[in-house]
Automatic annotation (TrEMBL):
Cofactor: pyridoxal 5'-phosphate
Xref: SUPFAM superfamilies: UDP-Glycosyltransferase/glycogen phosphorylase
One of the protein's GO biological processes: glycogen catabolic process
Pfam families cross-referenced by the UniProt entry: Phosphorylase
Entry GO CC: cytoplasm
Recorded GO MF terms: glycogen phosphorylase activity; pyridoxal phosphate binding
Protein EC: 2.4.1.1
Sorted UniProt keywords: Allosteric enzyme, Carbohydrate metabolism, Glycogen metabolism, Glycosyltransferase, Phosphoprotein, Pyridoxal phosphate, Transferase
Lineage of producing organism: Eukaryota, Metazoa, Chordata, Craniata, Vertebrata
Name the record gives this protein: Alpha-1,4 glucan phosphorylase
Organism of origin: Leucopsar rothschildi
Reaction(s) catalysed by this chain's protein: [(1->4)-alpha-D-glucosyl](n) + phosphate = [(1->4)-alpha-D-glucosyl](n-1) + alpha-D-glucose 1-phosphate
Function description: Allosteric enzyme that catalyzes the rate-limiting step in glycogen catabolism, the phosphorolytic cleavage of glycogen to produce glucose-1-phosphate, and plays a central role in maintaining cellular and organismal glucose homeostasis.
Amino acid sequence: MGRTLQNTMINLGLQNACDEAVYQLGLDMEELEEIEEDAGLGNGGLGRLAACFLDSMATLGLAAYGYGIRYEYGIFNQKIRDGWQVEEADDWLRHGNPWEKARPEYMLPVHFYGRVEHSASGAKWIDTQVVLALPYDTPVPGYMNNTVNTMRLWSARAPNDFNLRDFNVGDYIQAVLDRNLAENISRVLYPNDNFFEGKELRLKQEYFVVAATLQDIIRRFKASKFGSTDSVRTVFDSFPDQVAIQLNDTHPAMAIPELMRIFVDIEKLPWDKAWDITRRTFAYTNHTVLPEALERWPVDLVEKLLPRHLQIIYEINQRHLDHIASLFPNDVDRLRRMSLIEEGDIKRINMAHLCIVGSHAVNGVAKIHSEIVKTQVFEDFAELEPEKFQNKTNGITPRRWLLLCNPGLAELIAEKIGEDYVRDLSQLTKLHQFVDDDLFIREVAKVKQENKVKFALYLEKEYKVKINPSSMFDVHVKRIHEYKRQLMNCLHIITMYNRIRRDPSKLFVPRTVIIGGKAAPGYHMAKMIIKLINAVAQVVNNDPVVGSKLKVIFLENYRVSLAEKVIPATDLSEQISTAGTEASGTGNMKFMLNGALTIGTMDGANVEMAEEAGEENLFIFGMRVEDVTELDKKGYNAQLYYDRLPELKQAVDQIKSGFFSPKEPNLFNDVVNMLFHHDRFKVFADYEDYVKCQEKVSELYLNSKAWTKMVIRNIAAAGKFSSDRTIKEYARDIWHVEPSDLKIPPPNEPRDAGQDKTPNGTAA
């Protein structure tokens, strides 16, 4: 979520008033804003997408709730020591959190372990351990519409009789100390991005958020006029018409068997009715196609932790497979491929299959990704129910990612096309008429330059490196992962360095290369990549021949609040994943909206950015998905590229020989060995085209006016990538709800006076 203060002031239309008031108290608002901790309750794109979605849902007047876990410790703080990543706990609640309100009156029990008893009256889950879920509510204000939604985060609490209700030997002290075991559930965020680690505590977290949330939703449904009660029993027929639940990846997949458990075991609905309601309630968003990221929980673990849920999953699977067998008799291989249960050394539950079978809609997050989902990853399921599979291209909120982080550019745009674009970003197309306006071109360039100077000052303060603010700011910020190919960027840096040293008098377009991002603590290769970048920076930044032509900076502790500083100052955005691996990306959109040009592969949303702006206004290079597939068929041989490309050979040899690690010449052996022998992401295959494309970037940068005109064309084409558009599509195609343009009257107006007012104040 990042910081809340400035976003709240902007959405409430109070920023200028607050700035002025605080100034009159002799304080500086910007200084105050810097004190607030980031709420870092997710890992990367998936968590930030949820945050943008909450802002858009409130702005569109949807009655929507965001549910999650109130981690005591969020994503770790990253320190760089001697070039290595070191993790520190993120004690973000140390000074309290003024934005949250504990709601003990809505506390709910969540059950674990135990056993299942079957009788004539149905199944009973008994002898369980209970953990309490305490909700904390954070307000989510819409933009200038007097709407405030709720983000409800659950915290784990031990019940007061925890470990004391048992025929306890009287070790009261130990019993109280053991309360920590229950409360550990919400202690810390698992720091893996795009990687599945099958840990019991993680499964507990996943079920904890799901069980608490579903009880909350059902309580709200029963309290509403829709949960009509025939005598004692609630009638749930209207449930899917009143409730839509979107599964953000498979992490909350246990919601499907949990809702079935509530309907069948507790509310005593017949299975078929319960299943029909469940399917019509859930929809599933897939966020990755990397096999190592797909959740596959061991059956033994689920059986121990959630015995009743395993039985329900088996029943779902049995009926699912019976259906497949009736359509495709004797096709045992299809049954194996489509089963929710994977047989093997250890039996596992494929959570993505559970989500597909238990949902009425499945979507990818960019056109190319949704195609891959349909035709490759889940082709058997798409063949069965093609109408279930959709695309919903991701977006970003223009409130945080333009107004808040780049007020200079936001104001400049408003001067030209008015302020309405903030709620309707498609209006940015009006900027096309100013692409040849010399004054506007100069003003856009000026805003960028001011942002760069400000960020350069920040860098010099934090990193003690002198930055040339007229150099091209070439920025690559995102989680560190092999598929995102920070290594390819690193090879380009080394190549530029070698070219400068080969001919120091030759014209070189100065660059400041900024790379940032966190590596999962257990991801060895990602940590080596960080060390390598820092080792290269050490050599490059201290070579007198290079001087101010090339500087390399590794941005420490990349997070939302740092993104808000670096993105507006960026000239070149690096989006260079191997085609077919980045589901969408959203950083790419933030850079586009903030006046950076993109160098990228035809992957994720880059494809649609090129479609919107025209491919000639992005620097597109490298293999397409078809080329990658072709190369896989042929077999990727890294050695071939190394032998054919002298500059690649030189760069790799320098890494290999210890040129960047003279005290430990073998330090990067693992990296080099990976690049030659098991590089799934084919860095060498795209290196040549990448370097050539970078030469075109430098060439254009020399022509400031032509560069800025391309920037304007990009900003004018960024309208599609508002999360408002994304959410309108979810609302229309999946949730079947209508966004409301009505502005709720402010609390100081009598309710009837402000009724039927549209945002501009005229009668509807």
